[in-house]
Design a protein that fits this description.
By secondary structure, the chain is mainly β. The protein is about 15% helix and about 50% strand. The protein has a 4-stranded antiparallel beta sheet with strand order 3-4-5-6. A 4-stranded antiparallel beta sheet has the order 7-8-9-10, with helices on one face. Strands 11-12-13-14 form a 4-stranded antiparallel beta sheet, with no helix packed on it. The relative contact order is 0.12.
């Protein structure tokens, strides 16, 4: 028996149902085609960009947390989950999300900074001006006895200056947390660097000497309490860096030289210094590890990257091809910036992340699990541990709000610089002098 079609309103309802099914099927096919096209485009993009084609690698930067002229940036360091940026006219404190907390103006002609647990020590090389500050403003202003050569800031708040001397070529002054001079001693050699131990109880410094047109260096270590240095440890080349890796051990780095010094003796590390000249150096004040980049046989396009722990053992060694602009080490990560590519290595030397840029990376800073990159466009920040990037640009509204706060801060800073400060003279008489910062820059 034939099945009869139902007729309703002059239309075959079975035919209408079939047309609806056909339309639904066509829509489904079109959606699937669109999805396939999107997946194809994404796959093509990832394959054409191998620097982001791995779960172990980070995505490329797009935005910047802080816009700054890179030519004005002298230093940048992470401090208390913030980035401290030293430029030729101010010190800025910026969060990872791009919020500008404060900006303290300065008039130093050759500014440099050291970081402790609670403060930033800002000083002017070649002059006598220095100050202590943080992200809430300027804590303390003063002047040294003589022009500053170098400085060090321990974790317990003790700080020291290497200065040009009067009765001697150089002198060292050590201050406690109350900004009082606790000890001082002279040096008849020119000091190139100074370091305080983490507890502030010991000091070490490097000097440079010249005989028969040959430059050599000496390393001295001493107790801050008595100021009498141990015997000199001689190096046959100039040294430019010194840091405490342990309470009684320092690392020194210079032209073709990298070594540890302890108890008046050299302690050779596992780093291969054969035919090596100095290139880049960075010290991890948290873990005590040191990263050194050495140019072999004068060729700066083929370098050797060594990471050495506080015992002098090499954690890993890698060959780096290409001119390196900057290196940084902190905790278990080491960053190497080569033009438009930044690579991240873990403590075993494994490549764990990379960032490919459209602009050259001029400086890198590793802080904990975050990587900061300075390019001509500004500073970007990336999360190293989560394999994702943290890119939160400063909005126009937030920038205007920040600028208003910064203007007030800078005005207060300049007014503070113009104030009269009280210092103790050599004769222990109270004297009022004008802050030398007023005459800087």
């Amino acid at each position: 028996m034939k099945k009869l079609s139902m007729i309703k309103g002059g239309k075959d309802t079975s035919s209408v149902a079939n047309q609806k099914k056909i339309m639904t099927l066509l829509r489904t096919i079109i959606i699937l085609l669109i999805v396939l096209m999107v997946l194809f485009v994404v796959a093509k993009f990832v394959s054409d960009n191998p620097h982001i084609n791995s779960e172990e690698r980070m995505k490329a930067a797009i935005d910047y947390i802080y816009e700054v002229d890179s030519d004005t940036v002298i230093d940048m360091r992470e401090w208390k989950d913030q980035l401290v940026i030293l430029t030729d006219t101010y010190v800025a404190y910026v969060t990872k999300s791009g919020t500008l907390l404060t900006r303290n103006a300065h008039r130093y002609s050759s500014p440099a900074m050291e970081i402790s647990g609670g403060s930033i020590l800002l000083y002017d090389i070649g002059s006598t001006s220095y100050r202590l500050e943080n992200n809430k403003g300027i804590e303390y202003y003063s002047t040294t006895e003589h022009p500053i050569i170098d400085a060090s800031f321990s974790k317990n708040g003790t700080y020291a200056f290497a200065e040009r001397g009067e009765s001697a070529i150089c002198a060292i002054y050590v201050y406690n947390k109350k900004n009082e001079i606790v000890t001082t001693w002279n040096c008849d050699e020119f000091i190139t660097g100074i370091a305080l131990s983490w507890d502030g109880k010991r000091a070490a410094y490097t000097t440079v000497c010249g005989t028969d047109a040959v430059l050599t260096s000496n390393v001295y270590m001493t107790s801050v309490a008595d100021g009498a240095p141990d015997g000199a440890v001689l190096f046959e080349s100039p040294l430019i860096e010194i840091n405490y890796v342990k309470r009684d051990t320092v690392s020194v780095f210079g032209q073709g030289a990298f070594s540890y010094v302890s108890s008046g003796k050299k302690i050779e590390t596992g780093a291969d210094m054969t035919a090596a000249t100095e290139n880049k150096y960075d010290f991890d004040s948290v873990g005590g590890n040191t990263a050194i980049l050495l140019a072999k046989y004068g060729n700066e396009t083929v370098c050797q990257l060594d990471v050495v722990d506080s015992d002098g053992d090499v954690l890993f060694s890698r060959t780096v091809n290409g001119v390196v602009n900057s290196i940084s080490i902190s905790g278990k990560y080491t960053a190497v910036a080569r033009d438009k590519l930044v690579e991240i290595f873990n403590s075993t030397g494994k490549l764990t992340g990379s960032v490919k840029l459209s602009d050259s990376a001029q400086k890198v800073e590793i802080g904990g699990n975050y990587l900061y990159l300075l390019t001509s466009r500004g500073i970007s920040v990336h999360s190293v541990s989560s394999n994702t990037e943290l890119l939160i640009p400063v909005t126009d509204a937030q920038q205007k709000k920040d600028n208003a706060v910064v203007s007030e801060t800078e005005t207060a800073a300049i007014e503070h610089q113009q104030a009269i400060i009280t210092v103790q003279s050599n004769e222990s008489e109270t004297t009022e002098i004008e802050n030398p910062a007023d005459s800087q820059g």
